[in-house]
Amino acid sequence: MPDPSSPADPSLAYASADPLVTFDGVTRSYGSVVAVAGIDCSIAAGSFVALVGASGSGKSTLLKMVNTLETPSAGRVLFAGEDVTQMRAARLRRRIGYVFQGIGLFPHFTVGENIGIGPRLSGDPLPASRVAELLELVELDADMASRMPDELSGGQRQRVGVARALANDPELLLMDEPFGALDPITRDALGEKVRELHDRLSLTTVMVTHDMAEALLLADRVLVMDAGKVVADGNPGDLLRGEGGPIAQGLVAVPRQQAEKLAGLEGRTRAQ
Ligand code: ADP
Ligand code: MG
Hints:
Helix content is 39%, strand content 24%. It has helices at residues 12-16, 59-66, 89-94, 111-115, 117-121, 128-137, 154-165, 184-200, 212-218, 236-240, 245-271; strands spanning 19-30, 33-44, 48-53, 74-79, 82-83, 96-99, 172-176, 204-209, 221-226, 229-234. Helix 7 packs parallel to helix 8 (184-200). The longest helix has 27 residues, at 245-271.
């Protein structure tokens, strides 16, 4: 008898769980620009989903509609079965951690104040012990709480950004190109850290990235967007086998060709 708690194909895990987020015919237009063009898709509770696509394909707009930073022109976004536009924004956003694209920390606040900003604004400031616990989650020393953001490296600042997103103990973690500006080694380490936190805290995670290699290595499921539509939806194995269609295949080809070139180079240098 197969053990039902450990499916042979881990990609089936997301297909069987209840959806935490559902996009139901979601469209968002800005004048004549259709940023998101009729998306129907569910994100299963507990899954780690990467949203990949070229710049301007609608990734950020789709993410923002989940926590109502943007509202659909047509269709609905459901969070745990409720239409997000019908929920109180403060209540919704407490359940969602958001790591914003390109928006860093408040420069005049300490690291600890940055981490606690959400709870403080909602009138429920974090105790120092919770700030220390959040710093520990992202592997930073507790004494960093009193530092200013400009005293941190880029990677440390992004770790603080992740700690801030986790401050309210969210169910859903949304990350918009969280590691875009980091060097490859820091980026790799932080990606693995986020995946580990996702598993340890039983989060549901949606991470926007333009890096297909990062998506394939970290996510259970990869959605590829192009011109406001989802053009491929599969697990990393499906996409690597070329089952995602031409746009996904084009994105997968980039890291694959790099790996092949490196392997070839390694072979030549060894033969010398
Ligand atoms: P991505 O995150 O994939 O780069 P975005 O969701 O930011 O894409 O943008 C999708 C499209 O919508 C782009 O053409 C962009 O210019 C347009 N867009 C996004 N936000 C706005 C806005 N506030 N006003 C007008 N156009 C916008
Ligand atoms: Mg974007």
